[in-house]
Amino acid sequence: MIKGLKAALGAAVVGLLAGTALSASPALAQNADDSDLVAKGAYVARLGDCVACHTALHGTAFAGGLQIKTPIGAIYSTNITPDPKTGIGSYTLEDFDKAVRHGIRKDGSALYPAMPYPSFARMSEDDIKALYAYFMHGVAPVDQPNKPADISWPLSMRWPLAFWGKMFAPAPKAFTPAPGTDPVVARGEYLVTGPGHCGACHTPRGFSMQEKAYDAAGGADFLGGGAPIDNWIAPSLRSDPVLGLGRWSEDDLVQFLRSGRIDHSAAFGGMADVVAWSTQYWSEDDLRATAKYLKSLPEVPKAKGDYTYDPSTAQALDAGKTAGMTGADVYVQQCAICHRNDGAAVDRMFPPLAGNPVVVSENPTSVAHIVAAGGVLPPTNWAPSAVAMPGYQKILNDQQVADVVNFIRTSWGNKAPANVTASDVSKLRQASQSVLDRRSWTDEPTSTSSWGLFGPQPYGEGWTFSPDTHAGVDNPQ
């Protein structure tokens, strides 16, 4: 998309913005003819993936209406087109900044932290000004009223959110790298912790839905893997060689973010939206900076040691010796044609199951979900084919799905518990209508991997936001 937004453009933007006050009126805050600033704002909007969350399924770009499920009810993204009645057309730059970086609407009420303003709090003033210019002058106004939140009183009251923000959200302050930081790594840190808001999905949340860490100073929790989001698990982005990115190279990360597929992984679920609607449009420099930063993060403990491939499963399947291997026959009949007997699959088409971090996660939500419901590799400019995996919920019964998932999780050297039951799969089917887990808060301790398996926990580490996923429904906008 837009490339080469480098120092020369930055200097021009600074000059153009000299003397512009944050409280300027919408008509005067930016020059509608300033195409460079609007273009920069369009790119910043891609960095923040604004379009995916602020576009309903089958909806008009930026007009809002996307359902975001929470453990207390559903909320809906808002219209951020410049329509003066239903959108943000009446917002001044100061109003816009308060919403994006402070989490405060124009009417003074607090935003739900499904809007990742705790991450946007560290965005630069220049990026905010460019983003404002884009939404005011580069986006067509759409007259579409916002949907009210589907949350019952008293939980629907917004005033407690202001206290939440003061307790858990960082104070808005433009990101400043630590002295001596490599400029490329610093740019990557800004992208990951700021507009890219990667931690919103990939960092576990605490007792009040706050991210447990907003940067590497927070220790191993930062980007350590999130809770179920629309029945997908966001895995760790840290150095763990089994559960994280320990075996990924910088080139792997660049290619994955650009195309959604590499030889040993593929994007699906919410990450498919991120790639299709956002990161495929990032510049080469920004992709490289992101990869370099992620690989520069301090090492974390190896929760499952190192991965070593075990050929015994492939040998047994090749020989047809599946007796006593529960789920193996289902795998051979339904899965092996794409993922092969050796679990290695087909490079950049079908992801491998052997040693796959998603497969060996303590929480098997993602792998069970994709077996039951299927998934789609998003088409991108770099990989235009839309590769789909069919859902097996109408072909296999609950027990068969559980058996094959447990087989996959314990084969080829995968070190994961065979902890999926037919009851879990049944709940997963029901979760296609609602991901909310209605079990008692005290049914099981939060440390067990089966607690909250196929829906966010009503309290604790699984407390999360679950926006609807566009992948397989809408083309990227």
Poorly predicted spans: 1-30, 433-460
Structural class designation: mainly alpha
Distance between the termini: 12 Å
* DSSP summary: helix tally: 20
Mean pLDDT: 84
Largest sheet entry: 3 strands, antiparallel
| Shape, per Cα inertia axes | globular
Which strands sit side by side, in order, in the main sheet?
A: 2-1-9
Percent strand equals under 5%
Kindly provide the radius of gyration, computed on alpha-carbon positions and rounded to a whole number of angstroms.
23 Å
Beta strand count: 9
Please give the share of residues in helix: 25-40%
* N-to-C order of helices and strands: HHHHEEHHHHHHEEHEEHHHHHHHEEHHE
Subcellular location: Cell membrane
Keywords: Cell membrane, Heme, Iron, Membrane, Metal-binding, Repeat, Signal
Main location: membrane
Organism: Acetobacter sicerae
Folded structure, characterized:
With 477 residues, the protein is mainly alpha-helical. It has 20 helices and 9 strands. It is found in: Cell membrane.
List the helices and strands and how they pair.
Blueprint: H1 7-17, H2 26-29, H3 35-48, H4 50-53, E1 67-70, E2 73-76, H5 93-102, H6 117-120, H7 125-137, H8 159-168, H9 183-193, H10 199-202, E3 228-229, E4 232-233, H11 250-259, E5 261-262, E6 265-266, H12 270-277, H13 284-296, H14 312-318, H15 328-334, H16 336-339, H17 357-360, H18 365-373, E7 375-376, E8 388-389, H19 398-409, H20 422-430, E9 466-467
Helix pairs in contact: 3-7, 9-13, 11-13, 15-19, 19-20
